[in-house]
Design brief:
The structure is a single chain. By secondary structure, this protein is of the alpha/beta class. The chain is built from 21 helices and 13 strands. The protein is about 45% helix and about 10% strand. The strands form three sheets. A six-stranded mixed β-sheet has the order 1-2-13-12-10-11, with helices on both faces. The chain has a five-stranded parallel β-sheet with strand order 6-5-7-8-9, with helices on both faces. Helix 14 links the parallel strand 10 and strand 11. The structure holds glucose-6-phosphate. Glucose-6-phosphate binds next to loops.
Length: about 525
Amino acid sequence: MTNPLTPSPAWKLLEEHFREMKNTSLRSLFSEDNNRGERFLIENLGILFDFSKHRISTKTLELLVQLAEERGLAEKTRAMFSGEKINITENRAVLHTALRAPKGLVIMVDGINVVPEIHEVLERMAGFANSIRSGAWKGFTGKPIRSVVNIGIGGSDLGPVMAYEALKFYSDRNITFRFVSNIDGNDFAEAVKNLDPEETLFIVASKTFTTLETMTNARTARQWLLDKLADDRAIARHFVALSTNEELVTRFGIDAGNMFGFWDWVGGRYSMTSAIGLSTMIAIGPDNYSDMLAGFHEMDEHFRTAPFDRNIPVIMALLGIWYIDFFGAQTQAVLPYENYLKRFPAYLQQLTMESAGKHVTLDGENTGYDTGAVYWGEPGTNGQHSFYQLIHQGTMLIPCDFIGFRRALHPLPLHQDYLIANMIAQGEALAFGKTAEEVRGEGVAENLVAHKVFEGNRPSSTFFMEKLTPANLGKLVAMYEHAVFTQSVVWGINAFDQMGVELGKVLAMKIIPELQEKGKLLEHDSSTNNLIGYYRG
Ligand code: G6Q
């Protein structure tokens, strides 16, 4: 297999350097350098990014930065931010960064400055959000809205759910928020349980307005509403759409005046700062929402301008490449020590795995090296009582991202001390472990010594911030967005398409009538035929 990275001088040097580093322990790296904790630390944008507990030396970082330079990261970043059509398989610009650009900026796509349009939509969203929050917007029978149900899937769901959960502390508790994504009817049935149609607003979030799951759920929602309100005019008071497809929105029966638009250069998984964020804005209010956008923008600017060796997303990305392509790591754990971030790992799964799960380069060549890792995680400390065993003593190398906040949002200081002590302790335990001598020193019986040894040398990053705020959430999301972009540039893959989700959808459309028409001849493989047969009964 050809490997497009083999001719890269930095890649070759990294291969040689890896031979020196692979057996180097974090214990020795720390004992050789008293300043290591400061050397591999960046404090910027209100984030303390500690990457000293990684199996790197100054030379590793230099070579990784050289790799990013050789792969044209600076030029590719400029191209993305300036609206060039870098999503070449779909011939689209990639401009989620424009969604959080301040008003005065000029960003041209096909000869049009897109920034004024973006702010126009944001202002309409703010007007609408305020009218829902204040009760000024009335349902068809004159009652204010008390429940908001976002119907969307993938990029039109994961960002809104994650942001709602993450920023719940800041949300309006007089309004109930629910999210429906799955085609599984249980999802819809539970989402509307105990809701009153007269006080419910449905947000149909779909870039294309063609997605099977979303359109099926939206039609079911329309029926649920009409079953009680029995008048088509009620739709205008209880449905809004977030979409790029005005024609299909109006055909569904939603007035164009109740549609908040966005553009083809916003990818689904990069869309939480587009109109797709309407539920977030209703929950936390336009001012908090602006703070969140400002946080995103701050990280965008950091990524765009900071030198690579002081650039948080670039370093994160390069560390990922170091582990995936040299150490053979296959997964990356994301472990927020903040319960409100419970959906953050799930959100990152789509962001990172749909973006970097590619086996061919932009030229259509097989990469020949590994690309995207499996992202996973749960909030600490829950994970500690479940899967951390494998991270500490299993046979796989699993780099971890710890995310924590100095100040809690609750008034329970003891809890916060215990929480953060655990986060710090986990990084320490993973890095330094416990040797057989240390175990023996504790008087452990010889037959148990091996079981109680922690090899250590397991890498982690710690992202420490002051407090979970809308702005800090924006910084965190943008940080991962740019890290995955950086990886895609180094790997030479397209981070902005997702062709791998198509095949299953097409096959499902063929199977639907086969489930419904029992006599239909089945011409699949014997396994698939059996499964269809079992369902038919
Ligand atoms: C994300 C993907 C995908 C998309 C959903 C929903 O990058 O494109 O997850 O967001 O398939 O699509 P619609 O918003 O068009 O319904």
